[in-house]
Amino acid sequence: MPAFIPGETHSINISAQLLANDQALSYWLTESPIAENTKAIAEQIKLKGDLDVSLLLGIPVSSPDDKAEVSYQINSTFEDLEVLHLSSNLLFERAQGSLGISSKDGLVANDIRTQLFGEMANLTIASYLDTHEQNNKNHDDLNKDAFFGTILSLEGKADTTKIFEYLGYSETFEMSGDINYSAQLSLPDDKESYPRVNIHSNLQGLLREWPAPLSKSSSDVENLDLNLLLKPNQIFLTAKHQPVNAPSVDTELLFVNEKLSFGEILLGGATVQGTDIEGLNIAAKLDHIELMPWINFIQKIGDKQVDNEGAIKNDTLVEGALENGALIKGSVLIGDSASIKSTSEINEADASTLKKLHLDVADLHAFGQSFNNTKVLLDRDDGRWRAAIEGESVEGQVLLPTKNNDLDVRLNKLLVSSTNKTDSKASNAASEKLDPRIFPTSFLSCQQLVIDGHSYGAWSTFMKPYEDGVRLTGLSGKINGSEINGQLNWQYLEETHHTSILTLEVKGGKIENLLSTFQLSPLLTSESFTSSLALVWPDEPLEFQLGKLSGSLDLAIKNGFLKTDDEATGILRLFGVLNAETITRRLRLDFSDLYESGVGFDSVGVGASIDQGLLTITDPLSIKGPSGDYVINGRSDLEQQTLDLDMLVELPFAQNVPLAALVLGAPQIGGIVWVVDKLLGEPLSALTTSRYDISGTWDEPIVELDQAMNASKKDRSNEKGTRGVMQ
């Protein structure tokens, strides 16, 4: 022992080599003289395994007034060490390398190899000590951002599945692959401060099979920065993410007592309306989105209970307060002095993590249509997802399907285009055909359907896909006092071949109102009418073309009037031949008065078949009026609007004696004819049946007298032809 000399520091130096197990190492790190610089980190980790340790101690033996401290340098090596970080539950396995602890530098380690998330990683450790010199400075002079403690830096690769398993999720939400990352765990010496984790990754290697614009290939680069504040029984996470094809994403998540308590995910600077503080809220402002893929995606993952409501498998996560400040501005403050609602107070019946999804989309694409400036708010209503929709072209709500309920779409208004070809971001989208087999089973209703700017009333139907397409059964429409009922079968037999099959029963009062709805001139009126239609065309339902139409139709109308008072009435001007007051003009082929008159009728009836746009009258078009009967047979090309018809006109002889005299060529025998008609009755009325041939077009029909009296139906049994070639 050296002699004591005042003012000088003397020490005893001790060196040793030993094999230390985890219990011995725990003592050295938490209770020995070196614990001053190691206890903060030692209390947060648990070690398992053996270490080769070399020890060098310098123990002061000078006067206590010298305030000399024990100096030490401990170096350890290890081959298969297991390190568990208690507050995050991260397990570092198969760690190998060297670790140094000194009174000068604290805890230091370089290039420790370890396994985390199923992949190897490199770990370095550095300590930042609060020295005596710093302690002696005035506190105001210290850098307020100075950190005293230990930082663990980790670089490696992680398997996506392992990450989600660590977070307590059995599902990976349609994400897969390995990602490279760099992370820092900061362990402060100050007991009033909390550990933090900073993580960065470019996400290369991650495959995200989400709908556009949030889809991602494994080769895409997207910067992601995560920051976690680790408090006892609580984790607060903030994140910034830049997707490759979408606006930036800002995230705040709070986990309390092993569960997600609150969170917001915001895209493109959007905000959530009416934030739910007990779950996950998502808001997005997007330029373009395809709706149906997202509905299917949300339905696929949104209602899944994820391992006890999304638990993070940490043994010591605590209710408390987030550090410094408010998470929800102007609403619920979450800070150091604010209390956090414990999970026992949260409604356990509502198992879904996602609470609200708010979309603000400039171009929303759904069912082959584009809807501009549309807002969609998705939340839960009585345990079922509900999407409230509001935009320039659509308004209403959608109830998403559940195990016991089909998709339910109830719209107040819907504005669509029959020729809407959206400029989708996808290539060749303008020419793509919809596949009706992808439509979900659903009930659809709309109180105001507007197509190409024209209102088509209220509609409802039940839609169900099948192997070859989709069926719309219970199709019901109410338009201007008319009722339409039927069904639509939309077939998709080949990759690009569509067929639409429509059957309808129509009835109502004023047929002129229905004609106006379908943008047809109200050329006739009625007190009542009924009609049956069975139509088929080789295209999508809204791609309706007269030239490709096939099927059949029947029509019956009672008590109305044929409008023939202007040139715009086209073919209906020829109906004026029923007017007995002008029949003599017809026989002279003088039809000038048809532009100035109209004809009343008691009934109209017709049956017809259609083959590739060629309409053939199967049950003659019969018009019965107070001054005569009228019968038309023949054909019409629906696309070219051409006519090949013959018309029989029958007038009651007794009421038209002047006409009978004119037809017989002897006006003076009119009185005799009248007497004969009274004696013989009906047979003589055939003398007033005339036949006309009608050709030309719908707008400009050509009427020619074929037989003035004793006329009969024209024989068309040998006629044949196709649309555009009638012979």
The coarse overall form would be: rod-shaped
Q: Quickly count the helices.
A: 10
Report the mean per-residue pLDDT as an integer. 77
Structural domain tally = 4
Structural class: mainly beta
Report low-confidence residues grouped into runs of 5 or more: 132-144, 305-351, 421-431, 580-588, 591-596, 654-670, 682-687
Gyration radius (Cα, Å) is 44 Å
Number of strands: 39
Percent of residues in β-strands: over 45%
Question: First CA to last CA: what distance?
Answer: 134 Å
The proportion of residues forming helix, as a percent range, comes to 10-25%
Largest sheet: 35 strands, mixed
Protein topology:
Layout: E1 11-20, H1 22-30, H2 35-42, E2 45-48, E3 51-60, E4 71-85, E5 90-102, E6 106-116, E7 119-128, H3 132-136, E8 149-159, H4 160-167, E9 175-176, E10 178-188, E11 196-201, E12 207-208, E13 224-231, E14 234-241, E15 249-256, E16 259-267, E17 279-290, H5 291-302, H6 307-310, E18 354-366, E19 369-381, E20 384-390, E21 394-399, E22 407-416, E23 442-446, E24 449-451, E25 454-455, E26 458-466, E27 469-479, E28 482-492, E29 498-508, H7 511-517, E30 524-537, E31 550-562, H8 583-587, E32 599-611, E33 614-625, E34 628-637, E35 642-650, H9 657-664, H10 670-680, E36 689-696, E37 701-707, E38 721-722, E39 725-726
Parallel strand pairs: 16-17, 17-18, 22-23, 22-24
Antiparallel strand pairs: 1-3, 2-4, 3-4, 4-5, 5-6, 6-7, 7-8, 8-10, 9-12, 10-11, 11-13, 13-14, 14-15, 15-16, 18-19, 19-20, 20-21, 21-22, 23-26, 24-25, 26-27, 27-28, 28-29, 29-30, 30-31, 31-32, 32-33, 33-34, 34-35, 35-36, 36-37, 38-39
